[in-house]
Amino acid sequence: MGLLIKALLGALVVVLIGVLSKTKNYYIAGLIPLFPTFALIAHYIVASERGIEALRTTIVFGMWSIIPYFIYLLSLWYFTGVMRLPYALAGAVICWSLAAWLLILAVSTSAAVGRRRQRKSGRSRSNW
Predict the structure, then answer these.
(1) What value does the mean pLDDT take over residues 95-116?
(2) Residue 78 to residues 82, 85, 92, 97, 118: CA-CA distances in angstroms?
(3) Spacing of C-alpha 66 from chain mean position
(4) Which residues of 28-56 are buried (b: 16+ CB within 10 A; e: fewer)?
(5) 16 with 34: CB under 8 angstroms?
(6) N or C: the chain end with fewer CB closer than 10 Å?
(7) How far apart are the first and last CA of the chain?
(8) Which uninterrupted H or E stretch holds 65?
C-alpha cells in the first residue's frame, strides 16, 4: 500500500509540473522538483540512526551539494543555446556528475585530514 501512495504522489508531482508548465508562470514548474522530499526522509533517517551531530554534518554537505546542481543548470543553459535538447541534457548531467564527484572527493579528503588532526590532538569532534 505504501508503494501505491508513493507512486500516486509521484504522479501528482508530474501532473503539477505539467500543469504549471502551461501557465503564464511556467518557470515555477522548475521549483516543484526542488521540494526537499528526499532530503526530509534522509535527514530523519540520519538523525534517528546516527544522532544530531551526524545530521548536522549531513546538512552541511547538503549545503555544499547546491554547487553541482548550479553547475547542471548553468551548463544546461549554455548547452541549450548550442546543441539539440537531448545532447544538452546529457551534457548537463555529465557536468553535474563531474561536479558531484569532485565535491565528494573534496569532502572525503577534508574528512580524512580532519581525522588525522583529531588523532594527533586528541579531540573527538568531527569538522564535517
Answers:
(1) 88
(2) 7, 11, 9, 17, 43
(3) 6
(4) ebeeeeeeeeeeeeeeeebbeeeeeeebe
(5) no
(6) N
(7) 38
(8) none
